[in-house]
Amino acid sequence: MNTHVLTADEVKKLSKAERRKRRRATPKYRNLHASRERIRVESFNNAFSKLRALLPTLPVNKKLSKIEILRLSITYISYLDTLLTF
């Protein structure tokens, strides 16, 4: 693996094919990256599921999009805040 960092002038001297080849990730790197991304997305989805479970909606099992969960959370937190201030 070549770890040399090229300067801007060195990059300009490379042909288009050389630049493309240099950017190409190895299969091992792509697999590791894909695995990390799956874990990250799974973590986000778990967090949304936990947040969704705390929100009151009718019907309870209504499917909400992520943006709907966030917007409803904002509204619900604001509502709870007003209850606490009175």
Short characterization:
Helix content is 71%, strand content 0%. The chain is mainly α and 86 residues long.
Mean pLDDT: 86
Biggest sheet architecture: none
Order of helices and strands: HHHH
Distance between the termini: 64 Å
| Strand content range | under 5%
Structural class: mainly alpha
Helix content: over 70%
User: What is the gyration radius calculated from CA atoms?
Assistant: 24 Å
Can you name the CATH architecture? Irregular
**Number of contiguous helices:** 4
Which CATH class?
A: Few Secondary Structures
Q: Which stretches are low in confidence, meaning pLDDT under 50 for 5 or more residues running?
A: none
Strand segment tally: 0
Structural shape: elongated
Break the fold down into its secondary structure elements and pairings:
Layout lengths: L7 H6 L2 H8 L3 H27 L12 H20 L1
Q: Your description of this structure?
A:
- It holds the Pfam family HLH.
- The chain has 86 residues and is mostly helical.
- The protein has one domain: MYOD Basic-Helix-Loop-Helix Domain, subunit B, CATH 4.10.280.
- Helices cover 71% and strands 0% of the residues.
- The protein contains four helices and no strands.
- It has helices at 8-13, 16-23, 27-53, 66-85.
- The chain starts with 7 loop residues before the first helix and ends with a helix.
Question: Can you tag this structure with a few keywords?
Answer:
single chain, 86 residues, mainly alpha, MYOD Basic-Helix-Loop-Helix Domain, subunit B, 71% helix, elongated, protein dimerization activity, BHLH domain-containing protein, transcription
